[in-house]
Design brief:
Largest sheet: 7 strands, mixed
Number of helices: 12
Helix content: 10-25%
Structural class: alpha/beta
Shape: elongated
Number of domains: 3
Length: 553
RNA sequence: AGACCCAUGGUGUAAUUGGCAACACUGCAGAUUUUGGUUCUGUCAUUCUAGGUUCGAGUCCUAGUGGGUCUACCA
């Protein structure tokens, strides 16, 4: 067993140990087991990254298995979306997509096997009765009156359950363990229930369906999963997971639990995500404000950034709350390298260069990305009238450290000339309607002989060639970083009413050719991604993440 | 009430398994910059508490404190 990579976390320590002991002949096999009843979110991304990265690191494989044992909630279209999201994240699973439902026949046989060993029985108790029999935390439960049925009777009944002789809820198959067990999950857990309902894959072939505890671990075994990684809340299930491995005498997969990842301002509860969609609070599962992979993709988050984020936040057994700023940092880090810089004016005000001849135009050449020369250059049309950012002008400079437009100031227009502010015009309400400047003809970008020193540089767009673009600006969906952590308050009470602002902006003409999904840095403003809602007539951009700013004006 | 899990800066993760508490993000201060971006530099901790073992404890032991999980015919 040469060169076992060094462990970076406690799960990898277990794996290294197993590898050193020659367990499973050095084979490593993990799996990602989503239930196809919703969309994947940032929390799933963490689980995906852990499972795939660990397997990759130790030369193993990772399966994708749909945990589809509940026919009432699961749908095929979720399967496709899950597959798309995982591929987008950058992972390819081993072989075909697998389904727990493919193992229904095996699972049924396992049920019989348990019965034959006297380790399971058919119970006619009602759900309420079963709950009552459970006892309570610290209080032992009581045996079901049907607990001691004979093996023959159990076999007969279980077979007839499968054959559809009994109505929903009338009978269940239960493991026969210990009604006084300190772990409530081991107090004769229900293994199979009757549901006369069509399944998205098996149709009406079955009317009994296994529960999680009698499907998940067994699927792991069938697939030869060596390390079954899941989140902390399944810790108590591990006892049952192991009990069933021994009782069934099947391949001993090993369950290891890690702490799920929570991120400020992001919801990772399928139920609540669904509520946001159904109540129309967001436009859909892929709304850019959602913590779903589909939403983050539409928002413009690169999958590399999400992967980096998931890996850097580590793997432990500790409750953790990640700062949203760290996710944004990971996004900026990738985009800084990859996004080309274009100019767009989000809140435009007209600036007239009074000594620039009317009707004259010229073009400047500018770098597409100073971080990546291979991205080349492009041309910027320039003229006497340009749009500049309203925030970049002050009627009076606030202080010595203010470097942008204000009366008497010299400011560089990015990749163009240095201009001098002469004055401005305003309406009755004092709103600036136009800024008047003169330019220094010998200050042309790259061949500046003017000797004028401009401390500030601003972005701009020529009025005659500018295109109108729609920009959707986002803030966090919630006003509180942990909207679910307030007792007695519904998370919807923390919805941020300003989470979406739609504005009309002016963009440089080259932006018209952008394609959906493409991300740009709008110089000095932030990163923006072309939304699929864009049309030939109107480009639509989503604000992905802003630029950091050390300006404390 | 019982069982199990966890505890290191504002946040998250490390610490060669007993040897000077490190890294990233954030914050603050500064340098560079035709993006107030990027880049670079500096700076921010009685390791939950109290005892104990030891030459030496974040690490081991004991007790306490705090947080989390578990009583679905959901996964």
């Amino acid at each position: 067993m040469p060169n076992i990579p060094e462990a970076d976390n406690f799960i990898e320590e277990f794996i290294v140990e197993d590898l050193k002991n020659g367990k499973h002949n050095g084979r490593i096999h993990t799996r990602f087991p989503p239930e196809p009843n919703g969309y994947l979110h940032i929390g799933h991304a963490k689980a995906i990254v852990i499972n795939f990265e660990i397997a990759k690191k130790y030369g193993g494989k990772t399966n994708l298995r749909m945990d589809d044992t509940n026919p009432t909630t699961e749908e095929t279209h979720f399967v496709t979306n899950i597959e798309n999201d995982i591929r987008w994240l950058g992972y390819e699973w081993e072989g075909d997509t697998l389904y727990a439902s493919d193992y229904f026949a095996t699972l049924y046989e396992y049920g019989l096997r348990l019965i034959d060993k006297g380790l399971a029985y058919v119970d006619d108790s009602t759900p309420d009765e079963i709950e009552a029999q459970k006892g309570d935390i610290g209080i032992p439960g009581t045996n079901s009156p049907y607990r001691d049925r004979s093996i023959e009777e159990n076999r007969d009944l279980f077979t007839r359950m499968k054959d559809g002789e009994f109505p929903d809820g009338s009978k269940v198959l239960r493991a026969k363990i210990d009604m006084a067990h300190p772990n409530l999950l081991l107090r004769d857990p229900v293994l199979y229930r009757i549901k006369h309902e069509d399944h998205h894959r098996t149709g009406d072939q079955w009317c009994i369906y296994p529960l999680y505890d009698f499907a998940h671990g067994q699927s792991d075994s069938v697939e030869g999963i060596t390390h079954s990684l899941c989140s902390l809340e399944f810790r108590h299930h591990r006892d049952l997971y192991n009990w069933l491995i021994e009782a069934l005498e099947i391949f001993p997969s090993r369950q290891i639990e890690f702490a799920r990842m929570n991120v400020d301002y992001l919801i990772t509860s399928k139920r609540r995500l669904k509520k946001l969609v159904e109540e129309g609070i967001v436009s859909g599962w892929d709304d850019p404000r959602m913590g779903t992979l589909a939403g983050m993709r539409r928002r413009g988050y690169p999958s590399l950034a999400i992967r980096n984020f998931c890996m850097r936040t580590g793997v432990t057994k500790r409750e953790n709350q990640q700062e949203f700023g760290f996710l944004e940092h990971c996004v900026r880090e990738v985009l800084n390298e990859s996004a080309n810089r274009y100019m767009a004016v989000l809140n435009p005000v007209k600036l007239v260069i009074t000594n620039y001849p009317e009707g004259q135009t010229e073009t400047f050449v500018t770098d597409n990305n100073p971080e990546d020369e291979s991205q080349g250059t492009r041309e910027l049309p320039f003229s006497r009238e340009i749009w500049v950012e309203r925030e970049d002008f002050r009627k009076e400079p606030q202080n010595r450290k203010y470097f942008r437009l204000a009366p008497g100031k010299d400011v560089r227009l990015k990749s163009a000339y240095i201009i001098h502010v002469d004055g401005h015009e305003e309406d009755e309400d004092g709103n600036v309607t136009q800024i008047n400047c003169t330019y220094y003809p010998n200050s042309r970008s790259g061949e500046d002989t003017s000797g004028v020193k401009a401390k500030g540089t601003i972005h701009w767009v020529s009025v005659d060639t500018a295109i109108d673009v729609e920009v959707r600006q986002y803030e966090n969906l919630f006003t509180d970083p942990t909207p679910m952590d307030h007792e007695g308050k519904d998370f919807l009470e923390f919805i941020n009413p300003n989470s979406l602002t739609v504005i009309e902006a002016k963009g440089e003409p080259a932006l018209a050719k952008a394609e959906a999904g493409q991300t740009f840095q709008f110089l000095r403003k932030g990163y923006f991604t072309v939304d699929p809602d864009s049309t030939e007539e109107k480009m639509v951009f989503n604000s992905t993440v802003g630029l950091k700013s050390s300006w404390k004006g």
